[in-house]
Amino acid sequence: MLQRVSVGLVAVAALLTVALLDGLLAQRYGEWHLPPAFARGSLVPIAVASLMAIAGIELAWMCRKAGHHPHTPWAVLMIVALVISPWLCAAGVLGDGVADVEALPWQMMLVIVGVAGTFLLHIIRGQRNTSLGDVAATTLIIIYLGLFPSFAVLMR
């Protein structure tokens, strides 16, 4: 129990530190001559994308233990793309500017690409005995660890 509490306290402290540093970078990006993407926050999306990529690998490992064979590299790629898409929209890379509603179409498009790519990869793989479980496991990883955390980045 002590270990869980101590790990939780360290995690909360780390998240608060990242959020504070992210706010500082967003506030001071002009003075420090940083790229414009820093004006919309960059540490939170990068930290969330990194944590979710690691969590995706872990969840894929758990699915393998349960007898499924998710497409781990594809799932991790889609997780990172989904998590950073709101940040890229806010920075003007994937859209016209800072309108938060621009990220939602990109998120939905990435989910569709992720699911379609999962089916395509599974067809290429050619395994038929565990098809439904493998596709479902990969889709679960993409949506659970990619789509849902992307809304946290969108709120940032």
What is this structure's SSE topology?
Layout: H1 2-28, H2 43-65, H3 72-90, H4 103-125, H5 131-155
Topology, number of strands: 0
Largest beta-sheet characterization: none
Fraction of residues in helix: over 70%
Rounded to the nearest angstrom, the distance between the terminal CA atoms is 32 Å
Backbone shape: flat
Which structural class do the helices and strands define? mainly alpha
Q: Helical region count?
A: 5
Runs in which pLDDT lies below 50 for 5 or more consecutive residues are none
Task: Please state the CA-atom Rg, rounded to the nearest Å.
Answer: 18 Å
The figure for the number of domains is 1
**Beta-strand fraction estimate:** under 5%
Mean of residue pLDDT? 83
Element string (H = helix, E = strand): HHHHH
How is this structure best described in words?
With 156 residues, this protein is an all-alpha fold. The chain has one domain (2-155). Helix content is 75%, strand content 0%. The protein has 5 helices and no strands. It is flat, with a radius of gyration of 18 Å. It starts with a helix and ends with a helix. The mean pLDDT is 83.
